[in-house]
Amino acid sequence: MAARDLPIGPNEDALLESCQQQMGYRFRQTELLRAALTHTSCANTRAMSNERLEFLGDSIIGLVVCEQLYHRFPEYQEGDLTKIKSVVVSRQSCAAVTRRLRLDRYLFLGKGLSQQREIPENVLADVFEALVAAVYLDGGWEVARQWVLQCLEPIMEQAVQEKVWHANAKSELQTLAQREHGITPKYQVLDEQGPDHCKCFKVSAQIGSQMFAPAWGRTKKEAEIRAACNALAQLRGEKPPYAHD
């Protein structure tokens, strides 16, 4: 039986102790941890769930990330910082942290959710936000700030690297194609999926007769940038980063 399926009772103390070890933080007020791990489906009242903590944690994460990006990248303008922040604080990123720390094993869920094969991403994201708020209320701003940075640093690094890489990918591919072949790369839309208001595009970069691994994007521009990244990687003998999309 997974830890998240354990009934509330004698096993709860052991579960909360294991969760604190996994987080690398020990609570003085374990009731905050208990609340942060409790989904509304398992709470007697909404006030006993992690909803209020989630509200607070979302703002704390945003402030920590904004402050870090502001001081760390003085050369970036507002638009660049906003794009990176949106990736770092996204629901996907928050859910990824919960999975990476394996905190999904400690959730208190109602039967409907606990019996699902996979816990929904939005639930996992909510838990991370709630835990951030719990750490803040228990240990103060600096402790919470450090824990957030520890959790999100890998995602922040990747987001910054991708931004720099993406910004230069198309121009770099064009320079290479003109230097090596005397021609300009072309981008072909191979597929489109989704409703008109939320389409995704599959695009491949092409230099002469050579087509490179295609990539999906939420816009044609994004798909072209990713396709250029794939092409550059293949030309270097590396694995295309978006070939699996």
UniProtKB/TrEMBL annotation:
Q: Which reaction does it catalyse?
A: Endonucleolytic cleavage to 5'-phosphomonoester
- Localization annotation: Cytoplasm
Q: What is its main location?
A: cytoplasm
Cofactor(s) required, per the database record: Mg(2+)
GO MF entry, a single one: rRNA binding
- Supply one GO BP term: mRNA processing
Task: Report whether Transmembrane helix shows up as a keyword of the record.
Answer: no
The record's EC number reads 3.1.26.3
- Class in the EC hierarchy, top level: hydrolase
| InterPro entries in the cross-refs | dsRBD_dom, RNase_III, RNase_III_dom, RNase_III_sf
Specify the DRBM domain's residue ranges: 168-237
Family matches, as CDD domains: DSRM_RNAse_III_family, RIBOc
Q: Which UniProt keywords apply?
A: Cytoplasm, Endonuclease, Hydrolase, Magnesium, Metal-binding, mRNA processing, Nuclease, RNA-binding, rRNA processing, rRNA-binding, tRNA processing
Active site at which residues?
Answer: 58, 129
User: What residue ranges are annotated as transmembrane?
Assistant: none
Location of the RNase III domain: 16-140
GO CC terms: cytoplasm
PROSITE patterns linked = DS_RBD, RNASE_3_1, RNASE_3_2
Q: Where does Mg(2+) bind?
A: 54, 126, 129
The answer, when asked if Signal is one of the entry's keywords, is no
Q: What biological function has been recorded for the protein in this entry? A: Digests double-stranded RNA. Involved in the processing of primary rRNA transcript to yield the immediate precursors to the large and small rRNAs (23S and 16S). Processes some mRNAs, and tRNAs when they are encoded in the rRNA operon. Processes pre-crRNA and tracrRNA of type II CRISPR loci if present in the organism.
Q: How does it assemble?
A: Homodimer.
In which family does this protein belong, per the annotation?
A: Belongs to the ribonuclease III family.
Would you tell me the protein name for this molecule? Answer: Ribonuclease 3
User: Species name for this entry?
Assistant: Thermogemmata fonticola
